[in-house]
TrEMBL record:
Gene3D superfamilies: 1.10.220.160, 6.10.140.2220, SET domain. InterPro entries: ASHR2-like, SET_dom, SET_dom_sf. Residues 1-254 form the SET domain. It comes from Jatropha curcas. It comes from the Eukaryota. This is SET domain-containing protein.
Length: 373
């Protein structure tokens, strides 16, 4: 994160936030963040092996697939990932712990994923104490019902941990679960026209955790898990449109086409707050039918025709910014996608926008050019 582009500030009613240190242009990358912790979103006893357990690349594209020599349950896209995993994320005690958990019938899938996170977090305290301190410093959200979950998971996992982890407690387990709930980003499975996308892995990205939510965001995140040669699990935050100095930089925590009621339910249930962004203030009095009409009419607009001039996004009158402009300009209209578009760069490719879900390319006002064309 470049301090010349964004800085951390306390924003009233929103806590710590990232704001622009100077005027930012559409397409500018304001953050590239590496995870301090990655863990699989799949059940421990999954039937099919699709991704490397270290870098989470698709194993179908790997020239060689190797298995953990101790448990044979975990697979890697080559000797380098195996060596890296055995020295860190898949240390011997982690391997033994995960093998034991496979035999635990009381762990439903949600608890299995939480157990993976906790083992990864405890292991972080051993192999990378500084990163564990970063994880511990992140904001968390505790709930009454989490106490029982923490007690249950602690009773199962603590006997599997090495003796060096002397500070293990139910309170620490609960605090870590709260960090995970509020800060984990999902690395998604590849886009498929006929299937709903699911999460292949979760990652904790310490700098990206400072981005707050807005239902009409001015930035969006990209990842290139299967494409990038190096740092393939990094996430990249790119500006959607120009913003002035001092403006808060926000992401949308889910697809922007969701209805007002759905957004509010998810934000309250998952993150513990009621959204009062400009879009929500407008839509609060709308019916679901009115919302569907706005999105539908916008997406049915003829993209081959020039759009009428609208007030520039990011101006000081964002409360008057029409939803339809955002949906037409910055939401992918590919079937089953609903991703967000951002320019590839602020200079020569300012009019070429990339979808952060399917990789589709929109060239100026022309939509539907394949990313590999």
């Amino acid at each position: 994160m470049s301090e010349t582009l964004v800085r951390i500030e306390e924003v009233q009613g929103r806590g710590r936030a990232l704001v622009s240190s100077r005027p930012l242009r559409a397409g500018e990358i304001v953050l590239r963040d590496s995870p301090i912790l990655l863990y699989s979103a799949f059940p421990l006893n999954r039937a099919s092996i699709k991704y490397c357990d270290e870098c989470f690349r698709n194993l179908q594209s790997a020239s060689i697939v190797v298995s953990c020599p101790s448990c044979s349950h975990h697979h890697f896209c080559g000797p380098n990932c195996l060596s890296a995993a055995m020295a860190s994320s898949h240390a011997p005690w982690v391997c033994r712990a995960l093998s034991c958990l496979r035999e635990c019938p009381s762990l439903v899938v949600e608890r299995q994923v939480q157990a993976r996170f906790l083992i990864g977090a405890y292991n972080l305290a051993v192999v990378a104490p500084s990163n564990f301190q970063i994880l511990s410093s992140l904001q968390g959200r505790g709930e009454d019902e989490d106490a029982a979950v923490a007690q249950f998971l602690h009773s199962i996992i603590s006997p599997l941990c090495p003796p060096s982890l002397v500070e293990l407690s139910v309170e620490l387990t609960r605090a870590l679960l709260a960090k995970d709930k509020l800060n984990a980003f999902g690395l998604m499975e590849p886009f498929n026209l006929n299937e709903e996308r699911s999460v292949r892995a979760y990652g904790v990205y310490p700098k990206a955790s400072f981005f707050n939510h807005d239902c009409l965001p001015n930035a969006c995140r990209f990842d290139y898990v299967d494409a990038a040669a190096d740092g393939n699990t990094d996430i990249i935050i790119r500006m959607i449109h120009d913003v002035p100095q001092g403006r808060e930089i926000c992401l949308s925590y889910f697809p922007v086409n969701e209805s007002y009621s759905s957004r509010q339910k998810r934000l309250l249930g998952d993150y513990g707050f009621t959204c009062e962004c400009d879009r929500c203030k407008v839509e609060a009095n709308w019916s679901d039918h009115e919302e569907e009409d706005v999105v539908g009419e916008a997406m049915e607009q003829d993209h081959d025709e020039p759009m009428e001039e609208e007030e520039e996004v990011g101006s000081d009158n964002e409360t008057d910014f029409p939803h339809s402009y955002f949906f037409v300009r910055y939401m992918c209209n590919r079937n089953n996608c609903w991703g967000t578009l951002a320019p590839l760069s602020p200079s020569s490719h300012a009019n070429i926008l990339e979808c952060n879900v399917c990789g589709n390319i929109k060239n100026d006002e022309v939509v539907g050019v394949d990313a590999d064309a």
